[in-house]
Amino acid sequence: MNKAVLSLNAGTGLEVELLPFGATIRSIRLFGQELTLNYPDPADYQTDEFYLGATAGRVANRIAKGRFELNGVAYQLDCNNGPNHLHGGVAGFNRQLWQVLKQQPDSVQLYLHSADGDQGYPGALQVWQQFRIVDQQLELSFLALSNKDTVLNLTNHCYFNLNNDGTSIENHQLQLTATHYLPTDEHAIPTGDRRAVAGSAFDFIVAKLLGPALQQQDQQLALANGFDHCFIWQGADAAELKLMALLSSDQSGRQLEVFSTQPGLQLYTGNFLASPFAPRQGICLEAQGWPDAVNQLGFPGTLLKAGELYQQQIVYKFS
Ligand code: GLA
């Protein structure tokens, strides 16, 4: 039942195309206007290196030196991002063919069986991901079960551009509801600090243009060649479905709100996008667990206990 491209349309003006390969969002159109970066040919996703629209996992973002310890056992994962492991390594969920379990006009359910040891992680893992259009929002629901204790951190890696005219996202406005973010070292691994955004380039509490923010003098911006940082939500309601980000463009009048149950959101301004795209042509707003959480004392855990249900939601709401 694996077809190359799956189309979702609920007659609400929002149309979505998915690929079972990588559980990838290939296209999001609002009243005909494309809002994400994509390749013309579905086959191009097989060699994509930017995680374009893909589902990142088993553990999205980085694990320092690809190493962690769980229940007294040391694990070594492959290092595909300098000295670190990124997005599941070279054979992450973005490179795997998901099974189509169910397809309806407004929703698709994908499934992946990830064998014990897949990507170097413990536990045979079952993952279900549902994509559903409700009005003008696209809802992503992730469910997973492992037969052994493991670590898991799933996200979607869409690059948005609300004008989609081939130009940069620097003329987009961004608002983030996070009061803190995680500063990193030169290899994008969190230092362990939780830094207040107030008064810095990272302060998006009030909506502001991305271009000038990217120009600000800031050691963290210089290290990452732009924004490539996890904004964090702490406290009792961090795990609730909450508004994390609001992206808008005056040029097109389009707006995207990102809601999620995840405690973090990696803001990535497409710093290293390259041919056929250009740097900063898209922006990723990746709701996820905190990077390198498995090695960082005091970070909310990405541990998934054997037999326990992993449950997360991401909602992209357009207008
Ligand atoms: C994530 C990372 C970035 C980059 C992209 C993929 O967003 O944080 O550094 O690797 O994925 O290109």
Number of helices: 2
The best one-word shape is globular
The percent range for strand residues is 35-45%
The secondary-structure element order is EEEEEEEEEEEEEEEEEEEHHEEEEEEE
Question: What ligands are attached or bound here?
Answer: alpha-D-galactopyranose
Helix content: under 10%
Question: Unreliable runs, pLDDT <50, ≥5 residues?
Answer: none
Rounded Rg: 18 Å
Mean pLDDT over all positions: 97
Strand order of the largest sheet: 10-11-12-13-26-22-21-16-19
Major sheet size, sense and barrel closure: 9 strands, antiparallel
Report the span from N to C terminus. Answer: 33 Å
Total strand segments:
26
Structural class: mainly beta
Keywords:
binds alpha-D-galactopyranose; mainly beta; 2 helices; 4% helix
Description:
The chain has 319 residues and is mainly beta. It is 4% helix and 39% strand. The protein has 2 helices and 26 strands. The protein has helices at 210-215, 219-224; strands at 6-9, 14-19, 24-30, 33-34, 54-56, 62-63, 67-70, 73-76, 85-86, 99-104, 107-114, 125-134, 137-146, 150-151, 155-157, 172-176, 180-182, 195-196, 208-209, 228-232, 242-249, 255-260, 264-268, 284-288, 303-304, 310-318. It has a 9-stranded antiparallel β-sheet. A 5-stranded antiparallel β-sheet has the order 18-17-20-23-24, with no helix packed on it. The chain has a 4-stranded antiparallel β-sheet with strand order 1-2-3-4, with no helix packed on it. The mean pLDDT is 97. The structure holds alpha-D-galactopyranose (GLA). Residues 50-51, 61, 86, 188, 228, 266, 268, 272, 284, 286 line the site of alpha-D-galactopyranose (GLA).
